[in-house]
Amino acid sequence: MANITEEGLLWTGTKDTFSAWVDAEVFNWFLIVNGFILGLIGLLGIIFNSVNVIVYSKMSQGDSVNIALLALCLAELGGSVVLLLMSCFSVPELTLNYLPVEYLISWLHILFSRISSCLTAFVTLERYMCVAMPLKVKVLITSRRTTAMVSIIFVAMTTSVVPTYFARKIESVMIPGTNRTMLTFTSMDASSKNMENTSVTVNNVALLLAFAVVFISTMLLVITLRKKSKWRSEVTSSSQSDVMSARDKKVIKMIILIAVIFIVSYLPVVVSTAAMLSVPGYNVEGDYTIIFSITWGITFLLEGANATASIFVYLKMSSRYKCVLMTMLKFNSSVLTRLQNRTMV
């Protein structure tokens, strides 16, 4: 799994040493700084998503959206915990001593990231259907079916990751030029390697599909809302149309905000994932392992930032979320009354 050189740590099978523009010292400092920021984001993500989980668990579970958002918060909480664990291995010496552990933890991050992406796609598609076919959506999407879909996403993504934990074996190798050994994680045989490659491909395709669904559903939702807002302004009185337009604008702003945060955070992930599927050698053991490690180190930060930012979206856009949170924090009754009056808007 690893190849030790005088400059630093490389994955097995790499032909390249450190690039001319990324030497060993720069790469090691990148790992340390990236790990520190990753740990900070992970810690904030744990705190914020714990609050999200508590709030949504207190909200009505008869609403399909609340069920999906609760599941999303749980997935983002799990991802934040994993990011915090990954930050503990940012020091190259720890990476060297616990390489198999870091490898296994990184797959846990992939698991929660893919679950979060699929749940975001489901929520966005469900919101579009609510606007495009409001009379049918209550029959098509019920709380029971939403629970079933959430369960399927969790089980399917977990199943796609499990094979990777049985595809490799731990071995001890001698570090050249020293009297030390290190633990590595190598493929057991060709069949195990193919099994791992299949898991990688499935998870990469799942991310690309989820990203496409989020992007397309959001664009369709915005277009549909604008068309309906224009139609309402033509068939209702000016005062009513102003009220309806204000509501539509609020929904549009919320969807755009959610879409922008997700797309900006995951676009580099999607590009890197597409490169893994199309560029030979761009993987953890390929010829471009250093570029791969730097790229994915940055994408982990963006994914963590996406999970951390969700609480601010809920606070700004969801009056019900804010009302439950304020009740938990025991704010005064006048503030709660104003928030409760706004939950119908």
TrEMBL record:
UniProt GO cellular component terms: membrane
GO MF assignments: G protein-coupled receptor activity
Record PROSITE patterns: G_PROTEIN_RECEP_F1_2 (PS50262)
Main location: membrane
Keyword annotations from UniProtKB, A to Z: Membrane, Receptor, Transmembrane, Transmembrane helix
Superkingdom in the source lineage: Eukaryota
Location(s), subcellular: Membrane
InterPro entries associated with the record: GPCR-Ligand_Int, GPCR_Rhodpsn, GPCR_Rhodpsn_7TM
Transmembrane regions listed in the UniProt entry: 29-55, 67-92, 104-125, 146-166, 205-225, 254-278, 290-315
PANTHER family: FMRFAMIDE RECEPTOR-RELATED (PTHR46641), G-PROTEIN COUPLED RECEPTORS FAMILY 1 PROFILE DOMAIN-CONTAINING PROTEIN (PTHR46641:SF18)
Protein name: FMRFamide receptor
Taxonomic lineage: Eukaryota, Metazoa, Spiralia, Lophotrochozoa, Mollusca
